[in-house]
Amino acid sequence: METGGNPAAGPASVRPPRRGGLVYLWTTLSVALATVAASLGAWLLPHANLSLLYLTAVLVVAARWGLWPSLYAALLGFLAFNFFNTPPYYTWTVHDEADVATLVFFLLMAAIAGSLAARMHRAMAESRAALHRLSNLREFSGRMAAALGREDIVRAVVDSLERMLDVSAVVLVPEEQDGLAPAAYSPAAAERVPVEQARRAWAYAGRECREGGWYFIPLTTGQGTVGLVGVHNTDASREQMELARGLCGQAAVALERAVLAAELEQERLKAETEQLRSALLSSVSHDLRTPLASIIGAATSLIEYGGSFSAENRRALMETVLQESQRLDRYVQNLLDMTRLDQGRMPLQRDWVDLNDLVSAAQGRLHSELEGLRVEVAIADDLPLLYVHGALIEQVLVNVLDNAVRFSPPDGVIRIEAVAENGDVVVDISDQGPGIPEEARGKVFDMFFSARQGDRQSQGTGLGLAICKGLVAAHGGNIEALGNAGGNGTRIRVRLPALSREQVG
Amino acid sequence: MRETETGQRVLIIEDEAQIRKFLRISLEAHGYTVAEARTGDQGIELAGREPPDLVVLDLGLPDMEGVKVIRRLREWSAVPIIVLSVRAEEREKVQCLDAGADDYMTKPFGIAELMARLRALLRNRRREAGSGTAVIRSGGLVVDLNRRLVTLAGETVQLSRKEYDLLRLLATHAGQVLTHQQILQEIWGESHTEDTHYLRVLVGNLRQKLRDEPTRPRHILTEQGVGYRFVDDRGL
Questions:
Q1: Taking the CB of the first residue and of the last residue of chain B, which one, N or C, has fewer CB atoms within 10 A?
Q2: Residue B225 is part of which domain span?
Q3: CATH code at position A230
Q4: In angstroms, what separates the C-alpha of B112 from chain A's closest C-alpha?
C-alpha cells in the first residue's frame, strides 16, 4: 500500500493508511453498483457504451483510494462487464470481436485513469501533509520563541514530537556529577525513561545514535551538547527523523537563547545589588553623619566658646549631644534589626501590652523631634491588649512617627488613632506633610526607597519604614501608606491581629 | 576672641533643629544676629525680607535642592553663602560653588573652622566694598595690591602677568575656596573653563616662586577636585 491512503486521515504521510479489506470491500461494492446501473441502462444505451459506467466506478475508486484499488476495480469491472453485459450474457465467453476490443481498451483506460487519479491523489495528500507539518513547525517555533526558560522549551519538544511523529519522546539534560536527568518526557514514557541508554548515547559526544529501542538526537549549541532528545519509535521513517532533527535544531537554539537570557538576568541582578549596596552605604553614612554633625558641632561649640555661653545655652548644647547620641543609637538599632530580619533571626518575645504605653514610650523617645509639632492621640477605650513583642512594635511606632515628623510642616499636627476592627487592631498615624504620590505608596516600604530618590529627603533613612514592614509582618500584621481623608498628608496604617486570651492559650 | 563682628546678620537655612541650635548659640555668643529657616522657601523669603550679611545653607533641605536656593538668592543678592553638606562628593561641592556659593563645609565639622570661614567671607566682602586692605600678608609673603608688588621674606618675587593675576585673585579671596572654573574664567576667559591643565601648570609655577611646597603648601592650599584656597595671616 502506498502512503496515499484515505485523505480524510489527515497527516497521511505520517499515519499508517487505512489498510486492507475495507477499501477492497468498498471497491467491490462500487463495481457492483456499476453493474446494477449497467443492467438498468441496458435498455437505454448500446451495450458497448455501458463500459462507461464501469469506467466511472474505476475513476471514483482511483480518486479515493489510489492505484491498486483502482486496478482491482478495473479488473473486477472487466469481468463483470464481460459476464453481465456482453453477449452471450452470464458467460465468460465473448462473441463479438468488437466487444473484445472494448474490453481491452476498457482495462487499459481504467489502468491509465486509475494511475493518474492515484498520482493526483498522492500529490494532494502530500501537500496536505506538508501543510500540516509546516503548521506544526510554525506552532513549535512560536512556542520556542515564547518559551521563557529551559522547562518551557523541553516541554514543547516532547509535546511536538509526540503529536507530530506519534512517538514517545524524552529530553534529558546533564546533571552535576556527570549524570543525566530527564527534563521532560511523554506520559507514555514515564515508566521507562531510558536514563541508562541515554548515558551510553551521551558518550557518543554530540552524534546521533540508536540505543536499546531509542533513537537519540543531541541538542547542540555553541557551548557544546546541552541535552539529548530520545525518540522511542524504531520504525520511524526517514522523513520523520528529518522532522525530529529539525525540531531539535530549533530547540537547541532556543535553549542557547534561554541560557544567554538567564546570564543577562544574572548580570542585571548583580548590577542592581551593587546599586542597592551603594545606596545602602550612602544612606547609612548619611544617617550616621547627620546626628554626628550635631554632636560634633555642639561639643566643639562648648569646648571653644563654652565660657562665653549662658548656663542655659550650655545645658541646651549638652542636651543636643545626648539627644543626638540617642538618635544615633536608634539608627544603629535599626540597622541591627534590619540585619536580623533579613536573616530571619528575630525571635518574638510576645507579651500582653497596652497600645497606650507603646504610644507614649514612642513619643518619649522622639521628645526633641516632636518639639514644635502637635501630637493628637485618639485610642479607642475598648481597644484590646496586644499580644506582641513590645519593644519591636514600639520601634515601629517610633519609625513611623519619625517619618511623620520629618515631613510635617512647622506647627503641624500628627494624629495617632487606634480602633479595633474585624478582629484586628488598626493604628493610623497621619501627618500634614506633602503626602506620598499614589504610585509610590507601595514602594515606601522597600528598603532604601528614599535613598533611591536621591538626597532630597535628606534625613530619609530609607530603612525605617522597611524595618516597620518587616517587624509588623513578623507579628502577622501588615502596614500600608494611604492618603489622608482630609486632603494632603500621609496616613500610615498598621494592622495587627488582636489575639484573644484563648487563642494565645 | 580674635575678631568680633557685632551686629552682622547671619541667616541659617537648615532643617536639622539641633544644628540650628548650636550654630545660633555660637554665633550669638560672637555678637552676630541670627535668623533661622527650616526650608529653602522660608530661607529665600526671609532673605528677601531682611537681607542678611551671610547665609549658612544646608544642601539637603526637605523642599528643594540647595543648588536651587543658591541660584534663587544669586538672582538678586551677592550675599556670601557658605554651604553645609554631609555629602563628601566633589561634584556636588563644585556645583554649589559654581552656582555662586562662596565656601562649603562638610558635615560633621568643628565650630571653630566654620567661624573662621565665616569671618574670612565677611572680611572679603568688606574689602570688595572698597574699604579693603591693599596689603595681604601670608607668612613671609606680602602682596601689595596697590603697587602690584610681591615680596617674600623682604625680597621681591618676579611674577609673570598671569601668575600675578592668579595670586591677586586668590589673595583677595583669602580663606575662601575658588573653583577651577571660576579661576579659569577669571584669568583666561570664558572659552577656557575646561582647560584645568593650564591652571595646574600656573599654580605649580607660582608655588615654586613663592617657595611653597606642593605637598605641604602654606600659601595656596589645594581643595582636591574642587579648586584652590589662599591662606593669609588671619588664618582660616
A1: N
A2: 133-230
A3: 3.30.450.40
A4: 7
Number of domains in chain B: 2
Sign of CA dihedral A209, A215, A216, A217: positive
Q: How far apart are CA B207 and CA B202, in angstroms?
A: 9
With CB atoms and an 8 Å threshold, state whether B26 touches A305: yes
Say whether A226 sits in a helix, a strand or coil: strand
Based on the domain organization, do A476 and A360 belong to the same domain? yes
- Tell me the C-alpha distance between A56 and B156, whole Å: 130
Are residues A348 and A484 located together in one domain of the fold?
Answer: yes
Residue B108 and residue A459: Cβ atoms within 8 Å?
no
Q: Smallest Cβ distance to A316: which of B15, B21, B62? A: B21
8 Å CB contact of A304 and B111: yes
Q: Write out pLDDT tens, residues B36-46.
A: 998 888 999 99
Mean pLDDT of A208-216: 79
pLDDT at A418: 94
Beta strands in A137-287 (DSSP E): 168-174, 180-185, 209-211, 214-221, 224-232
Cα(A111)–Cα(A119) distance, integer angstroms: 12
| pLDDT confidence of residue B2 | 43
| Residue A191, domain extent | 148-262
Out of A285, A297, A407, name the one closest to residue B111 (CB). Answer: A297
Which residues in chain B touch residue A406, judged by CB atoms under 8 angstroms apart? 62
Q: How many domains does chain A have?
A: 3
Positive/negative CA dihedral, B102, B108, B113, B115: positive
Final residue of a domain: which of A217, A245, A262?
Answer: A262
> In this structure, which amino acid lies at residue A437?
P
Q: Are residues B122 and B140 in the same domain?
A: no
**Where are the alpha helices (H) located in A66-96, listed in sequence order?**
67-80
Lowest-confidence range among A212-226, A396-410, B25-39, B41-55? A212-226
Could you tell me if A111 and A157 lie in one domain?
A: no
* Selection from B176, B40, B114 nearest residue A298 by Cα: B114
Asked if residue A219 is part of any domain, the answer here is yes
